[in-house]
Write a structure and sequence with these properties.
Elements lengths: L4 E7 L6 E9 L6 E9 L2 H9 L7 H27 L6 E6 L2 E6 L4 E5 L2 H8 L3 E3 L2 H6 L8 H9 L6 E6 L2 E7 L6 E7 L2 H11 L8 H5 L4 H8 L2 H4 L8 H4 L1 H7 L6 H23 L5 E5 L6 H10 L4 E4 L10 H14 L7 H4 L9 E3 L2
Parallel strand pairs: 1-4, 4-7, 8-11, 11-12
Antiparallel strand pairs: 1-2, 2-3, 5-6, 7-13, 8-9, 9-10
Length: 366
């Protein structure tokens, strides 16, 4: 049997909450095994600086370089805690896949920017780093996102039943897994990003725990309709989006004034659920079961809204398929690092729109 290899996946998404780290064992021909996980929250100063760098500002190149160094140290702390938990030594790990923190995602202008310092991370941890996964796909004419469908296809596909995976991070994306056809996937709209930002503004907390606050509000049908009219939601895949399309500035422009904060939060829940459900029906065919992962999977109000929007489809968590919902993306970036090391493509052209499959990422030795 092929000797198993250990890889680490490091993921920090558009929600700007922190770093998910996973230590994963891969054995050729079998599903990956997650050996340990660790979450490192962003300090508030780091989170606010990352948020401020999403728009142009004073001395931003210098500030971005300093923040990249801070992020490398935080990633290294996450790796150290992960290895301690697993009683594993750095020399046992082949490589770590580090996504970095997205500051800009502009595939229509042929670039994407994930803030990172992989050389420093390799130096701090003694483990090789694979980073900058999205740029090669964009160079090949793709969107550079979503990248996780290739991993979903490898791990979650069923030969008999039509499944789909809904990843609800800051942005939500769908992977369509028909049993006798090719995998497709695309960003379908906002996930937690607006929900978290609105909760922080009105509750002073980084997110609406379990969706409890949103469940106290009432749906505002007119606001929902204005939200669902966003042209991105009707655009044909392949497509990807980010804070550029669905930031707080966009929400504020849609508000008329008398809305109560809890009612807006409830309506944002409906936006995430209905945009995902509408995309699933429009572009994925007769899906039998939808499996949800990402932070949104732990929002009971959002899961309830999804089930209400998809009464004829079984809706559950990826936990049922062997990968806990909270850790799917981190495991996916461990897989992407392994793909790079093995010289294998990490993208799906039919998902991203790239001209063909590409080996993703750049390698930084320990």
């Amino acid at each position: 049997m092929t000797k198993p290899d250990l890889y680490i996946g490091l993921m920090s998404g558009t929600s700007l909450d922190g770093i998910d780290a996973a230590l994963v064992r891969f054995t050729e021909g079998t599903s990956p095994t997650t050996l340990a996980t660790h979450y490192t929250p962003y300090p508030e100063a780091v989170r606010m600086e990352a948020l401020s760098l999403h728009v142009s500002g004073t001395d931003e190149l210098h500030r971005a370089a300093l923040l990249a160094n801070q992020l490398a140290h935080l990633h290294a702390q996450a790796v150290d805690a992960l290895l301690t938990e697993a009683s594993c030594q750095p020399a046992q790990v082949v490589a770590q896949g580090c996504h970095g923190q997205t500051l800009r995602h502009c595939p229509e202008q042929a670039y994407t920017l994930q803030l990172n310092n992989p050389s420093l991370l390799a130096e701090l941890t003694g483990i090789a780093v694979v980073a900058d996964f999205r740029s090669r796909d964009i160079a090949a004419g793709g969107q550079g996102a979503p990248l996780v469908p290739a991993f979903h296809s490898t791990v979650f596909r069923d030969t008999q039943h039509h499944r789909a995976i809904l990843n609800i991070g800051g942005i939500a994306n769908i992977t369509n897994l028909p049993p006798r056809d090719e995998t497709t996937g695309f960003d379908c709209g906002p996930g937690n990003m607006l929900l978290d930002a609105w909760a922080e503004r009105h509750l002073g907390v980084p997110y609406d725990a379990n969706g409890d606050w949103g469940r106290t509000g009432k749906l505002i049908p007119e606001l929902r309709n204005r939200m669902l009219a966003h042209p991105f939601l009707a655009r044909l895949p392949p497509k990807s989006c980010g804070r550029e399309q669905f930031g707080l500035h966009w929400l504020e422009d849609l508000l008329t004034g008398p809305e109560t904060p809890a009612d807006v939060q409830r309506t944002l829940v409906q936006l995430t659920a209905e945009s995902a459900a509408g995309a699933l029906r429009r572009w994925c065919g007769p899906v039998e079961a939808l499996y949800v992962c990402g932070g949104g999977a732990r929002n009971a109000g959002l899961m309830e809204a999804l089930r209400d929007a998809l009464p004829d489809i079984t809706v559950g968590l990826t936990d049922l398929l062997g990968v806990p919902a909270d850790w799917v993306e981190a495991v996916a970036f461990a897989w992407l690092a392994r793909q790079h090391v093995l010289g294998r493509p990490g993208n799906l052209p039919q998902v991203t729109g790239a001209c063909s499959a590409r080996i993703l990422g750049a390698y930084f030795p320990a």
